[in-house]
Amino acid sequence: MAEWKRKSMIWYPYEQMKTMREPYRITDAQGVWLYTPEGRMIDSVSSWWSVIHGYKHPLLTAAIVEQAERFSHVMLGGLTHEPVLRLAEKLEAWLPGDLAYCFFSDSGSVAVEVALKMALQYYVNQGQKRRTKILSLTHAYHGDTFKAMEAGDDEDYHFILEVYGKKTDVIHIPTQIPALEEAFAVWHEQLHCLIVEPLLQGAGGMRMYDIAFLQRARELCDQYGVLLIFDEVATGFGRTGHRFVADLVLPDILVLGKALTGGYIGHAVTVANHKVFEGFYSERAEQALMHGPTFMGNALACSVALKSIELFESEQYMEKIAKIARITKREMEGFSDPRIGEVRMMGGCICLEVKDAADLIGYQQFARERGVFSRPFLNYLYAMVPYVIEEEELVCVLDTMKAWFRR
Ligand SMILES: Cc1ncc(COP(=O)(O)O)c(C=O)c1O
Predict the structure, then answer these.
(1) DSSP per-residue letters across 296-347
(2) Which range (15-24, 38-47, 103-112, 232-241) has the least confidence?
(3) How many domains does the chain have?
(4) From the CB of 202, is ligand 1 less than 6 Å away?
(5) pTM of the prediction?
(6) Is 152 near ligand 1, meaning CB less than 6 Å away?
(7) Is 231 annotated as catalytic?
(8) What average pLDDT does the segment 165-173 reach?
(9) Domain of 353?
(10) Which residue of the set 141, 157, 317, 380 is catalytic?
(11) Top mutation candidate among 137, 154, 233 for ligand 1, by most atoms within 8 Å of CB
(12) At which of 314, 340, 367 does a domain end?
């Protein structure tokens, strides 16, 4: 066994521990830069798409320090506190429509579980017990907990589910309107929700689709009384070039995570609209939502989330994202390679899909030598940079991607 593995008992994510290469050891991080003992590199994936303000932002750090000096955490069971009250109030004001009722949790996967449980119980509370099915998309990814995996459609992550046989609770359809209409026609009486990563499917391959699909989804959900869930764990806070896709088409339940805290602390929120909240609001104890993660509404997470939203607004982040999109388009103009099947761009995301995954072997080290940290997966070489990136840094990330194909 390699020396670094013997010294470390860490089980790393998505890795065959036997063949895994030694991870880069980060000693410091500042802005878009990750520092290792050997040198620095631009984080072109924003620590799994979360660190939108870059690392060590003085205002975000101060928000955490100030709160830690008061208290870091108290549970929400029977207690509440200023940071969680203020964050919920801010989200209610900031999010579109009547998305207002915030259920906090500690990760995106758990927040998805909460959304799915909410949707199921919304109908159970009305005595509708036949609505047991979920409509979801092919190539969907909603997290690694069990129901989130089932709602997902990513064999490369989830082949373990095969032991259960064919999924019966979840129906997957492609992002095409005829498939959507057909699924509603066949299944509408048994569906409690349609869950989607709106406009941009992340871990399923940075796949982009048209807003018309979501508009039609909204109409069909209204027509058949099915709840529409937007999992904006990845797309929220500007990644698609829209603040939230929910600003364009309003879901009944919105899930946010990752960038919610500017990538400082794992936290997430499931936000329900008035109709969904009303479905639980009664004298009957059994109609309550039975969920309660220990660290929900963590005071450090809420304080840093509030500061992160404040920065997003005051520093004109939507303009920063539009600039990233403009530069990306300009730099990729005319670029092609026979090994690339498709180049996809949307807001602060670019993806080069190669025809053969073997064509990306070695890219991570190649990028590292050019001062860029990248983590391609399967056939996808992508960048989702922190929004504070400077033009020359972004050009360096994109040049590195192009240079790989010009070797
Ligand atoms: C769309 C989407 N939903 C849910 C999750 C799960 O979030 P977490 O890793 O915080 O559990 C992810 C993570 O990548 C995601 O991209």
Answers:
(1) TT-HHHHHHHHHHHHHHHHTTHHHHHHHHHHHHHHHHTT---TTEEEEEEET
(2) 15-24
(3) 2
(4) yes
(5) 0.97
(6) no
(7) yes
(8) 90
(9) 23-56+316-387+396-405
(10) 141
(11) 233
(12) 314
109 lines ligand 1 (CB under 6 A): yes
**Measuring CA to CA, which residue among 379, 323, 386 is closest to residue 352?**
379
**Pocket perturbation via mutation, ligand 1, pick of 112, 116, 260 by most ligand atoms within 8 A of CB:** 112
In a shared domain, residues 262 and 321 = no
Give the tens place of pLDDT for each residue, 205-251: 999 999 999 999 999 999 999 999 999 999 999 999 999 999 999 99
Within 10 A of 327 (CB to CB), how many other CB atoms are there?
A: 16
Evaluate whether residue 1 is within a structural domain.
no
CATH code at 338? 3.90.1150.10
Average confidence (pLDDT) over 35-58: 98
What's residue 157's pLDDT? 62
Domain boundary among 253, 288, 314: 314
Amino acid identity, position 306: L
Q: Single out the residue of 232, 269, 252, 255 nearest to residue 76, CA to CA.
A: 269
Q: Judge whether 14 counts as a catalytic residue.
A: yes
Query: For position 158, what pLDDT does the model report?
Result: 62
According to DSSP, the β-strands at 170-173 and 207-208 are unpaired
Residue 107 Cα: closest atom of ligand 1: 10
